[in-house]
Amino acid sequence: MRILVTGAEGILGRAIREWLASGNTLYLWGRDEVDVRDKDRVLAAAKGIEFDAVVHAAAMTAVDRCETEFDLAMATNRDGTSHVASLARERGATLVYLSTDYVFDGTKEGPYLEDDPPQPINAYGRSKLAGEEIAREVAGKSLTVRTSWVFGEGGANFVDAIAEKLKRGDTPEVVTDQRGSPTYARDLARGIEKLLRLGTTGTVHVTNSGETTWYGLAVEIARDLGSPLQVRETTSDRFTRPAPRPKNSVLSGKRYQALTGESLPRWEDAVRDYLGRRWLAQRGAAA
Ligand SMILES: NC(=O)c1ccc[n+]([C@@H]2O[C@H](COP(=O)([O-])OP(=O)(O)OC[C@H]3O[C@@H](n4cnc5c(N)ncnc54)[C@H](OP(=O)(O)O)[C@@H]3O)[C@@H](O)[C@H]2O)c1
């Protein structure tokens, strides 16, 4: 497949570069090459290249910053998506729009299904939902992939933040009252490729299997790293941040499983794998 990737320097973009390079032709756009807010640039940069799909991973993802810079969040996550969707339509390519568990309000008991009504409770979620709507409206063929709690190389993420804290000897204090499914960018990249090869359109939730809290994830990281430090429990009302987070944002993987005949690996295995790679690589480099 020939795949154009926006946000190529981000966590998902880098995973696509690393894990989907073999068997595909990739065109990688980082922010320096193409700012997706600039429609003319988006259309001009694609002149002379042919692609079957666009994985639109560029986004403003700093959840708290979106609260105070909502205009920028909308310009990036909604208008930028509209520009990329126009390009996809013009070329007859499938647009893969990456969306988030934060389009839900978190009040549901149990995992969210693709058809559950979105009701974002923060600015990031509102801007990403606006992106979903414009992607469907503008692109001829579109696949919305909602994912959650993404970790991997190439950007700020919870797994690295906790690992670095533990490495410094600081005890992390982490909330026990937000549930979700951690997702390794590598597994997400492979999941997207699988859906594209099947010609899937519509909305599909793609996360690692299983669920936990941020606290549970931090405990797992500490265990994997063999840290002697104990992760401390806290709750959202004591650990306040500009953007509220949903209490439950677990996404059901049933549709993905029905479409592909498989589930992504368990989140615990994915975290162990990622930490092993990263830390073994670091130790190797230090030796
Ligand atoms: N990370 C998560 O936990 C998570 C969860 C659910 C859904 N998602 C979605 O998954 C997708 C990929 O996220 P990610 O984890 O790879 O995030 P990421 O690491 O923040 O990558 C996003 C990339 O987009 C770039 N970007 C921002 N504004 C841009 C613009 N105007 N033009 C071009 N590029 C721009 C960023 O560049 P700068 O670094 O220079 O800003 C960054 O390289 C996003 O759509 C995100 O909303 C992520």
Automatic annotation (TrEMBL):
Keywords: NADP, Oxidoreductase. One of its GO terms (biological process) is dTDP-rhamnose biosynthetic process. It comes from the Bacteria. Pfam families: RmlD_sub_bind (PF04321). Pathway: Carbohydrate biosynthesis; dTDP-L-rhamnose biosynthesis. GO terms for cellular component: cytosol. Catalyzes the reduction of dTDP-6-deoxy-L-lyxo-4-hexulose to yield dTDP-L-rhamnose. This is dTDP-4-dehydrorhamnose reductase.
